[in-house]
Design goal:
The complex is a heterodimer of chains A (412) and B (275).
Chain A: H1 15-42, H2 57-68, H3 71-82, H4 91-112, H5 121-124, H6 131-154, H7 158-161, H8 164-175, H9 177-200, E1 212-213, E2 216-217, H10 218-246, H11 253-282, H12 285-288, H13 305-323, H14 325-329, H15 331-358, H16 374-397, H17 404-407
Antiparallel strand pairs in A: 1-2
Helix pairs in contact in A: 1-16, 2-4, 2-15, 3-4, 3-9, 3-10, 4-6, 4-16, 6-8, 6-9, 9-10, 10-11, 10-15, 11-13, 13-15
Chain B: E1 12-17, H1 26-34, E2 54-59, E3 69-74, H2 84-88, E4 94-96, E5 103-105, H3 115-119, E6 125-127, E7 155-157, H4 162-174, H5 188-192, E8 198-202, H6 209-213, E9 219-220, E10 232-235, H7 239-243, H8 260-267
Parallel strand pairs in B: 1-10
Antiparallel strand pairs in B: 1-8, 2-3, 4-5, 6-7, 9-10
Classes of the chains: A mainly alpha (412), B alpha+beta (275).
Chain lengths: 412, 275
């Protein structure tokens, strides 16, 4: 039915099969749509957020998807600025994943604020001292950059390519992509950093507070580093998932292995710095506030096991697996390591958001716990549904894997 | 934000005598009524109700008959040094007024991102999870005309009854005065406390009682070592109460009563009972 739209020389499933594939993701979107409607209509009382958990599931989702989407800017940087030619085979995928993550996060943030209609106040009445202002400016600008990076990929569609003007426009955009890659790198560096800075500057919350360099707490640099360490892993995971569902090899091993190797070095460096950060915090910020590391985990559901998981199982372990060439060349180990790396980053963001707020600062206050409502899950999972839908559509209608034809010749 | 803010002449603050506080809750009620604080049919969900002034019950943790109970009334601390909520606000909806020391909140500018709530260690900021007042119950007739009610989706907090300061200033101007007398401007909680546990005034005016009270060795602030420099002070003669005002590592807390200078300075001088 939609065969004129499909790329040349590649095999795609039937329209009906594709339609049925989209159903679960459409269901997630419908769930999210209903939740969003309720939250906008009735207010944020539809959630289990409270004056204690002012930030909750959506902010965890936001920070997690933004970190995971860092593959876009970092792969762009490696491809266009550093000149790693192998990565041209995966750059389109990385850009689309980045676009999904950032646009999803922006949509979620729009519902998360109590007065969505006043969202523009962030830009109009901007408080330049606020890290969140830096986050908002950079994310908004970067989303535009991602959209610009996405356009030439869309224009590669078979039908659109037939239109001469669009073809020339797309081609010219491709030519100047290095400029956007550089802009994206600059913007991403600052918003990934300021997302970390947001928590590090909360000096009255000793669990999150960090010392730092000039106006930037250490979390600023650690968030950038952790994002560029896990972003490529998430890109690898998405590619592997697409290969699994399509039962095809889509990206040459050289590109995957290069990303995995770069990720290995970055996560290793991140782990060294993160350990130093934990130690500096444990012997600096924490005792100065009259507290000990154990005092943060005295009660409540969020125990020290979260830190152990973050650092050992989802930090040091994937770093070792990715560092050993034999291990990362093994498909199973590579996927496990990428998965652990991504989980580690989500855990890190969870600790900075939920656990920070669950721990009372006043000695006579209590520890708190939090469980999201179905509306919160609905909106969070809608981003997942949206991601699957957009990526599936992109795979079906656009030649996002340049080597697909070469790796999967059609023999009839 | 620069260190050592160049304050104007006034720096309003309060001293709450915990030894006098009975935990009756009148301050909470007076505050809510005065400031049009939203109420719900069920106020038991303490994670989401709004209580600008909140009472925390504390205990010395000992078994009967040595058990002691006390209360921490907790308004906004109006932090004087780099208030954690001010610098984080995205839309400049909250500000430290250097002429009064009051940390304000502009409800119509707040976008409801709640970053300020996350940054405040005192839990003094509240979000409007619901529409403030039922439209059809006639509750608007009970509203204070000087205080704007808040809309759903914005953060609010104690303002040290800022409208009372405006009222007192207006009155003074009409009488051709440029300065307020002590007691002309006090908060609703100060006025309502039946035990007179709250003293309110200008901390930078040496004539005001608060500026003397804050020098007393029994006076302390909440989470002082974090460095927010609250303008709400507490006063208690009991060590276990003072110790609960901050976090201390083992051996860090030094009881005040053991300091001989305190005994000399404060225990033997006439007029000690004033404190």
């Amino acid at each position: 039915m939609d065969s004129p739209l499909l790329p040349h020389g590649v095999k795609r499933c039937s329209t009906w099969a594709f339609f049925f594939w989209t159903l679960p993701w459409l269901a997630l979107l419908a769930w999210g749509g209903l939740s969003a409607f309720l939250c906008l209509w009735k207010g944020l009382n539809q959630t289990n957020m409270s004056n204690v958990f002012a930030f909750a599931l959506w902010i965890v989702f936001d920070l997690a998807v933004i970190a995971l989407g860092a593959g876009a800017f970092f792969t762009g940087f490696l491809t266009y600025i550093i000149g790693k030619k192998e990565l041209k085979n995966i750059i389109s995928t990385a850009v689309i994943i980045g676009f999904i993550c950032y646009s999803g996060a922006m949509a979620m943030l729009g519902i998360d604020i109590g007065q969505p209609i006043r969202g523009w106040f962030i830009f109009w009445h901007a408080n330049i001292h606020s890290m969140l202002v830096e986050v908002s400016f950079c994310i908004t600008c970067y989303l535009m950059v991602l959209a610009i990076e996405f356009i030439p990929i869309i224009l590669e569609n078979r039908k659109l390519e037939e239109i001469k003007e669009l073809r020339i426009f797309g081609h010219n955009l491709h030519e100047i992509m290095a400029v956007f890659a550089a802009t994206g790198t600059f913007l991403s560096f600052f918003h990934q950093g300021s997302l970390g800075g947001m928590f590090g500057v909360m000096y009255a919350r000793p669990f999150a507070a960090r010392e730092g360099f000039y106006i930037w707490p250490w979390t600023f640099f650690l968030f950038v580093l952790s994002a560029i360490a896990c972003g490529p892993c998430f890109t690898i995971l998405c590619t592997k998932l697409t290969e699994f569902f399509t039962r095809k090899k889509l990206v040459p091993d050289s590109a995957i292995q290069l990303l995995a190797k770069i990720s290995a070095w970055l996560i290793s460096l991140y782990m060294v710095l993160k350990i130093a950060d934990y130690l500096g915090w444990m012997y600096g910020v924490v005792p100065r506030a009259g507290l000990t590391f154990e005092s943060f985990f005295r009660e409540g559901p969020y125990g020290v096991y979260l830190v152990v998981c973050e650092m050992i199982f989802c930090g040091i372990l994937p770093a070792i697996i990715l560092m050993v060439p034999k291990a990362r060349q093994n498909q199973g180990w590579l996927i496990i390591a990428c998965l652990l790396n991504c989980i580690g980053i989500v855990l890190n963001r969870f600790l900075f958001i939920i656990v920070t707020l669950a721990i009372p600062v006043m000695p006579f206050d209590r520890f708190w716990g939090y469980l999201p409502t179905w509306q919160e899950w609905g909106i969070g999972l809608a981003v997942v549904g949206y991601g699957f839908l957009l990526f599936s559509a992109a795979y079906r209608y656009l030649p996002i894997f340049p080597k697909e034809r070469e790796l999967n010749p059609i023999t009839e | 934000m620069k260190k050592g803010n160049d304050h104007g002449k006034h720096k309003y603050g309060m001293v709450i005598n915990i030894d006098k506080c009975t935990g009756c809750g009148t301050c909470m009620v007076a505050c809510a009524a005065e400031n049009n604080v939203a109420v719900r049919a069920d106020q038991s969900d303490k994670e989401r109700t709004i209580t600008w002034m909140r009472l925390y019950k504390i205990s010395n943790g000992k078994e009967f008959p040595h058990t002691e109970v006390s209360y921490f009334p907790r308004p906004c601390m109006h932090c004087d040094h780099h208030p954690p909520c001010v610098s984080v606000c995205v839309a400049t909806a909250t500000k430290l007024d250097f002429n009064t020391g009051i940390v304000s909140q502009i409800y119509t500018r707040c976008i409801g991102c709640r970053y300020c709530q996350a940054a405040c260690p005192y839990g003094a900021r509240y979000f409007n999870w619901w529409d403030a007042f039922p439209q059809d119950k006639g509750m608007d007739r009970y509203l204070t005309p000087e205080v704007s009610p808040r809309m759903r989706g914005v953060v609010e907090k104690c303002t040290f009854c800022h409208h009372r300061l405006m009222r007192a200033k207006t009155l003074a101007y009409t009488e051709d005065r440029r300065e307020l007398e002590e007691g002309e401007y006090v908060t609703a909680c100060t006025e309502a406390c039946p035990a007179q546990a709250i003293t309110f005034g200008d901390l930078s005016n040496p004539e005001h009682k608060v500026s003397k009270l804050i020098k007393h060795p029994f006076t302390f602030r909440l989470l002082e070592r974090i460095g927010t420099e609250p303008k709400v002070y507490y006063h208690s003669s009991r060590d276990w109460v003072r110790k609960l005002g901050d976090n201390f590592l083992p051996g860090e807390y030094t009881p005040v009563v053991n300091q001989s200078w305190a005994e000399e300075e404060w225990s033997t001088k006439p007029g000690r009972d004033e404190f």
